[in-house]
Design brief:
The complex is a heterodimer of chains A (271) and B (272). Chain A is of the alpha/beta class and 271 residues long. Chain A is built from ten helices and eleven strands. Chain A folds into two domains: 158 residues, Periplasmic binding protein-like II (D-Maltodextrin-Binding Protein, domain 2), CATH 3.40.190.10; 92 residues, D-Maltodextrin-Binding Protein, domain 2. Helix content of chain A is 38%, strand content 23%. In chain A, the strands form two sheets. A six-stranded mixed β-sheet of chain A has the order 2-1-3-10-4-11, sandwiched between helices. In chain A, strands 7-6-8-5-9 form a five-stranded mixed β-sheet. The longest helix of chain A has 14 residues. Chain A is elongated and about 55 Å long. Chain B has 272 residues and is an all-alpha fold. The chains are: A alpha/beta (271), B mainly alpha (272).
């Protein structure tokens, strides 16, 4: 065991790209800090249980929040993240632009949007146009947050002008405001409507107006546990991880081809 | 000997000599409080400062903060002074419990206060549903909701300060006024209020400062939207994710305003 660790360390020294190589080198241990988009809460918690079962010495610690908040915490504040899973490519770009990704980010899931309303849909909201009603309380997020940007895209595509009552911290904040009855409607991920169970109802958004939300995952440099990070990311991309994500209604990374799509990240972006 | 003593006494009064370890710890405490603000100044984007300060969004948040905190302070005074009087002067069973209840929001995490307000006076809350049904009054997502959240967390600061002053007040003035035949209301206005004025102002300023910094209860209960509910602390929080330098400038404004008020308060009212 000790010798194996030493061997891994030598490999690390020689190659300089530790994560992927050492991940297969042996059992991992310690804590893995996973910073993940709020919409991944339920699916990743389930993945965490299975991952810990497969790696008994590992303790996964999740930090679920808006992807924009998480990447700011990692890049600006040096928060100790081992893995970052974003609900959009834009916030993953911020990690890449800061040079804090260890290896290329891989897209591991997709999602679509729905209008979330109270159970029974008391206001009979059927289309995006219905959201323009000035008496309707609509909540969303800041455009820096993935769901805020996606919502704007969808409303723009439909040509609907909506004034939100509030910009919530993350997508789960929108869900909470609607399930608590404070807000009448919001646009959230289809997976969130499912996770809300009987407390909310979803109104579908037509495919031609909907977006495909891509979820990329990457290991973070300067991580406390690079081996654990690599193992967790691999688990998410594995068949087992993908099955769990599918159970929570996430779409495959690429429905047409393999489950693992490596997005090409330009060295610089003008964002 | 006889002309040496006054000098020494004078020196002792102006600068008391602390034992060295005590002094060292005290200085460490001062550094502990100063460091974060030095850090903020160090990262401040001085060149773009003015452009950010005069940004419409920043002015909107600042104005909303000033308006809501003045309302919250006014409400705290109107309800808090009578409450302090009740707690200080009237001996009733369960007074300790009432005091604990009325100052609970001071020690609770504000987000807990926000959630509690939500269930009480939110649109579907225990009482909020009737506010909505009978009066069409809704607090979440409104500026009024911000004021309610701020008052909820800020008023205890005024109540405790004023109650303390009322307890220390020499009641003989009040007794003398009563023997001269003045009414309770007259005595409250002309005898008690002037006597507790420093404490009242100190309490009001503390309550105002607490309201100005209010974040958790506001974002949980009132929401976050520019112009209606996005106060300075919320604007700082949102800016942190997209524009760090804007967040720093906004923070400096809050620090500057709060520091000026607290320093001024100390000079003017608490030096006794």
């Amino acid at each position: 065991m000790l010798r194996l660790a030493t061997a891994s360390f030598i490999v690390l020294l020689v190659t300089g790209t530790p994560a992927r190589l050492t991940a297969q080198a042996g059992p991992v241990s310690g804590s893995v800090n996973v910073f993940a988009a709020a919409s991944l809460t339920d699916a990743f918690e389930a993945i965490g249980v299975e991952f810990e079962a497969a790696h008994p010495d590992v303790n996964v610690v999740f930090n679920f929040a808006a992807s924009s908040e998480l990447v700011a915490a990692i890049v600006d504040d040096g928060a100790p993240a081992d893995v970052f899973a974003s609900a959009d490519q834009n916030n993953m770009h911020k990690l890449v632009d800061a040079g804090r990704n260890d290896g290329d980010p891989a897209t591991f899931a997709t999602n679509s949007l729905q209008i979330i309303v109270e159970p029974g849909n008391p206001l009979d909201i059927a289309t995006l146009d219905d959201l323009a009603d000035p008496d309707l309380i609509f909540v969303t997020c800041d455009p820096a947050v993935p769901i805020g940007a996606y919502t704007q895209q969808v409303l723009d595509a439909a040509g609907v002008d909506v004034t939100p009552a509030s910009l919530e911290e993350n997508v789960r904040g929108i869900v909470t405001k609607v399930t608590a009855g404070e807000a009448d409607a919001g646009i959230v991920y289809a997976t969130d409507v499912l996770a809300a169970g009987d407390d909310a109802e979803g109104v579908p958004i037509p495919d031609d107006l909907n977006v495909v939300a891509e979820y990329p995952i990457a290991n973070v440099t300067e991580a406390g546990n690079p081996d654990g990070a690599a193992a967790f990311t691999e688990f998410v991309l594995s068949d087992e991880g993908q099955e769990i994500l599918a159970e929570f209604a996430f779409g495959p990374a690429d429905a047409a081809a393999s489950a693992t799509v490596v997005t090409t990240y330009p060295a610089t972006t003008d964002g | 000997m006889s002309n040496g003593a006054p000098t020494r006494r004078h020196r002792a009064a102006s600068a008391e000599r602390l034992p060295l370890p005590v002094l060292a710890l005290a200085v460490a405490a001062v550094i502990f409080f100063a460091l974060p603000f030095i850090g903020l100044l160090w990262r401040a984007p001085w060149s773009s400062m003015w452009a950010i300060l005069t940004d419409r969004a920043v002015l909107t948040a600042l104005r909303l903060s000033l308006v809501t905190t003045l309302w919250a302070t006014a409400l705290s005074v109107v309800f808090g002074v009578p409450l302090a009087w009740l707690l200080a002067r009237v001996d009733f069973p369960g007074r300790g419990l009432v005091r604990a209840l009325c100052t609970l929001s001071m020690v609770l995490p504000p987000v807990v206060g926000g959630v509690a307000l939500f269930f009480a006076v939110g649109r579907r809350g225990l009482f909020g549903q009737y506010l909505d049904r009978w009066f069409g009054l809704r607090l979440p997502f409104t500026t009024a909701g911000v004021v309610v959240a701020q008052t909820f967390v800020a008023m205890p600061f005024l109540v405790l300060t004023v109650e303390g002053a009322l307890r220390q007040l020499d009641r003989r003035y009040d007794d003398a006024a009563r023997t001269l035949g003045s009414s309770t209301w007259y005595r409250f206005r002309r005898v008690t209020l002037p006597a507790i004025r420093p404490a009242l102002i100190a309490g009001a300023v503390l309550a105002w400062a607490r309201a100005l910094g209010e974040f958790g209860a506001t974002i949980t209960f009132a929401g976050n939207f520019p112009g209606t509910t996005q106060t300075m602390p919320l604007a700082i929080y949102i800016a942190r994710e997209s524009d760090q330098s804007k967040a720093i400038v906004l923070s400096l404004v809050l620090v500057g305003v709060s520091f000026a008020v607290l320093a001024g308060l100390r000079e003017r009212w608490l030096r006794a």
